TrEMBL record:
Top-rank taxon, per record: Bacteria
GO cellular component terms listed in the entry, alphabetical order: plasma membrane
Keywords: Cell membrane, Membrane, Transmembrane, Transmembrane helix
Name used for this protein in its record: TVP38/TMEM64 family membrane protein
Protein location: Cell membrane
InterPro entries reported in the protein's UniProt record: TMEM64 (IPR015414), VTT_dom (IPR032816)
Annotated membrane topology: Multi-pass membrane protein
Source organism: Blastopirellula marina
Lineage of origin: Bacteria, Pseudomonadati, Planctomycetota, Planctomycetia, Pirellulales
Primary location recorded for the protein, binned into one broad class: membrane
Protein family (similarity comment): Belongs to the TVP38/TMEM64 family.
Length: 229
């Protein structure tokens, strides 16, 4: 196929490659910082855990970590569990709920702002319309399902923001899911702290979302195979 005048390498990419790159980029948002600064972040987190921090400072720190989860490799399940253990179920739930919600809204809002330019550059008109239809039809379910899943939660809000999901459809599932997640992890963290098995609880809270992600991925693959058959 001859090259058109002024056509860039991105313009010459097949459509499915563009979609793949777009999804990979969204998934890489929380991973890339970990690759670059992962060791330093882990060292800082270990040092912070060993300090005697006041509840107010602890609450602010946990809130900030969750609020910037879309940009940083923050294991939100661990942060939520620590919040319950250090602050109690009520304060821990409120901090987690606020942080998770601000983080989701921040990623979604920025993606919505950049969405038109990204779709114009990377997607053909028909593909953009298909993705918009998916967002309108399955966007709410996608937000609910992916909220407790590491990486996929951040990727979902970014992709749905790019696809143009409305704020009206964004808020109810995010608020509901974040509320349930915050209460569940905070209660788990407080119970673990009371029973003095917080280390085990942190291991569980780190592993359970990954296990859940694995089963969701397997289920999606099976559905795709059934639809293709």
């Amino acid at each position: 196929m001859p090259r058109k005048l002024g056509e860039s390498p991105i313009d010459r990419m097949p459509t499915f490659i563009k979609k793949l790159v777009l999804v990979a980029g969204a998934l890489a948002i929380p991973i890339i910082p970990f690759v670059i600064w992962g060791h330093d972040l882990q060292t800082a987190a270990d040092a912070w855990q060993q300090t005697h921090t006041s509840p107010v400072v602890m609450a602010i720190g946990l809130f900030v970590l969750l609020a910037f989860d879309v940009f940083l490799p923050v294991p939100s399940s661990l942060v939520n569990t620590i919040a319950g253990a250090k602050l109690g179920i009520l304060a821990g739930s409120l901090v987690c709920f606020g942080g998770l919600t601000v983080g989701a809204a921040l990623g979604f809002g920025l993606a919505k702002m950049a969405g038109p330019a990204i779709k114009k550059r990377w997607l053909e008109e028909g593909d953009a319309a298909t993705l918009r239809q998916f967002a309108d039809t399955w966007g709410v379910a996608t937000l609910v399902i992916t909220r407790p899943l590491p990486i996929l939660a951040e990727a979902a809000v970014v992709l749905l923001g790019i696809q143009g999901l409305s704020w009206r459809k964004f808020w109810p599932p995010v608020l509901l899911a974040n509320g349930g997640i915050a209460i569940a992890y905070a209660a788990f963290g407080q119970m673990a702290a009371d029973q003095e098995w917080l280390v085990i609880a942190l291991a569980i809270s780190a592993g359970f979302p990954l296990l859940l992600t694995y089963f969701v991925r397997k289920w999606l693959q099976r559905r795709q195979q059934e639809e293709a058959a």
